[in-house]
Hints:
Layout: H1 22-27, H2 31-34, H3 46-58, H4 62-74, H5 80-92, H6 96-109, H7 114-126, H8 130-141, H9 149-160, H10 164-177, H11 183-200, H12 203-216, H13 221-233, H14 237-252, H15 258-263, E1 265-273, E2 276-283, E3 293-300, E4 307-315, E5 326-331, E6 338-345, H16 352-363
Antiparallel strand pairs: 1-2, 2-3, 3-4, 4-5, 5-6
Helix pairs in contact: 3-4, 4-5, 5-6, 5-7, 6-7, 7-8, 8-9, 9-10, 10-11, 11-12, 11-13, 12-13, 13-14
Amino acid sequence: MKQILILTLTTAFYSFSYGQTVNDLYDKKDFQELVKFENKSEKLTAEELYIVGFSFFQIGNDNKAIEFYDKAILKGLNNGSVHFFKGLSLRYLKNYDEALKEIEKSLTFETTNQEFMNEKGMVFYSQSNYDKALEVFEEAKKLPNTFPEPYYWIARIYHEKQNFDKALIAYYDAEKKLQKDNSNYLTTLSAIGQLEYTHSKDYNKSAKAYQMAIELDKENYELYYKLMKSYNSAKEYKKADSIFSIVKTAFANKKLPKEDMEFKAVSIAQFEWNGQIATVRKSLVDAKATLDITYKIFLQNKQGDKVERRFVVEKTTQIEKDGAKYLLCEQDKKTGGHITYPYGWTVDNIPVDDLEKAIKLVLDGKMIQGASSNFNNK
């Protein structure tokens, strides 16, 4: 998505039959009205042609934008900005060779313009020429820090090249340089959270990044799920439970994503077994009747593209006062049958680490299936 770019105007513009000057309309950012000056192009100054081109760019018509930039250039406008914006439109049209030529021209006018140099890097990035893009973004970092986007793109490239150590360092650099209202700042925090969790396995740092991200996007509940995973992996179970309470309230108020509202359960933790990932999902609806499911655990295959085994925790009839209220069960993938294991819990909020322990006992072959009354009560 294109960002709204602000163009500085220093020249007064003429008024036409529309009743407002180009300058007036630009001050209002009324790009739809500005493009109506297309039919008066022969009467427009070079600067006005430039503004009309810019307005076409803002409404997504890059071909028209380029047409008016060219008219402005033919009328004598020749500066860094007109070549920069022409290059930008050419890149969106995937005309990368011509885009690069225009950006190179813009840099001859403003050799230290960090935004222009960043756009040069974006031309190479858009062609998946990551090594050349990285070289240009590194060059852009050395320029006066007026447009810190290169810091983000350097991190992004290292991330895409799976050089996670360098990516993480670069994301932290980007987090320091980018303004909080920058569209890539939130993405940077999410990437830090992900890499600290999956690569560094520093779950506290992962949680901190997701906390910061949530402060900026309080209704992005995917961030809450990731924060819960980080807290649970860091053994900060009370903090994870507090986040689950927030999510549960959002569920009651029908604010969660459609899929989670329908599934009525969210991911709260994951753990690894024998090179495979198991994901724990917790029900957002309190268990009331026998066989109601409170937790679902999905074990993926080593490729991570299929679910290999499905475990659930079901509510059972509590025969004795200190007997189990919930039992560990499995949905047999081959037969479709229901397997019950001799492992249960007396508490409603089952500790994640104990749930992990129980699953691993089954996976390691240390727990035999069967309807035993000798539960490991927790």
